[in-house]
Amino acid sequence: MVMRVLVTFAVEEEFAPWRKLREFRSIDYDGLPLRRTNLGDAEITILLTGIGGEAASQAMGLMMQMADQERHFDVCVSSGLAGALDRKLVPGDIIAPRTVMADVARADVATDTLSVDASLHEQAVKLGAVCSNCLLTTGRVLSKASEKRDCSSRAQSVDMESFEIMKQALAWGARGMVVRAISDSVDEDLPINFNLTISPNRRISVAKVMLQLAKNPLALPSLLRFGKQSRKAAESLARFLDRYLPNVAVAVSPASREAAAR
């Protein structure tokens, strides 16, 4: 039986390099921009959630309702870019955290830490992902190195969506996994405050980026370098996902789980 896998990205720019590697067909569900392809025994559906936990939660809720009408997703992978909170991680590294942690307690879930699927995690590490203990999901972009260092005792990396994605996926009975690429190091200030560039539809607004540059033109070289660095990280992520996802069906098969238990 074909295994149904949902892979999420916050924005198109994170997904674009993979779309160049492989043909995806377009699917529309109630305004959600979905893409779909097949890799081995896995049917892969791509969901762009938008930036941040609220946007991710809303998109995942609608996505899982669709799945409930058809057949549940077997696996959900939260993917995209993440910032480093550990000096051992450098831009371009592909990370596979064992757990995801919310930066603040959530009223709708009993714990602030969720574990990824052990078999999926093991498979990612075998293929070269960096094993880390925890990824922290925050409500805002950590633009300053000092902010990232302040969080470094809690986790090794940071993003804005994975906890909500994992929470929804597990609630609907899917196996949850996080695979992300590091876009910036722990000691690196981001070139602009990206919190001020997010549009109402939870994407990066070019107009708002230009406004930030107008206020600080000297940030342009750093912004260009960061853009190139992020694109390279997304390209590395695309190549990894293209190798990893065909192995997902094998990693969570009954035979595989029995062998791991022995």
Structural write-up:
The chain is an alpha/beta fold and 262 residues long. It has one domain (3-188, 233-256): Nucleoside phosphorylase domain (Rossmann fold). It is 38% helix and 27% strand. The chain is built from 9 helices and 10 strands. Strands 5-9-8-6-10 form a 5-stranded mixed β-barrel. Strand 3 (32-39) and strand 4 (42-48) form a beta hairpin. The radius of gyration is 18 Å and the shape is globular. The relative contact order is 0.20.
Please list the strands of the largest sheet in the order they lie side by side: 5-9-8-6-10
Q: What is the H level of CATH, i.e. the homologous superfamily?
A: Nucleoside phosphorylase domain
Helical residues, percent:
25-40%
Secondary structure category:
alpha/beta
* Rough outline: globular
CATH topology title = Rossmann fold
Secondary structure tally: strands: 10
Q: Strand content of the residues, in percent?
A: 25-35%
Which architecture would the CATH scheme give at its second level?
A: 3-Layer(aba) Sandwich
* Low-confidence spans: 257-262
Count up the helices. Answer: 9
User: Would you state the CATH class?
Assistant: Alpha Beta
**Largest sheet at a glance?**
5 strands, mixed, barrel
Number of domains: 1
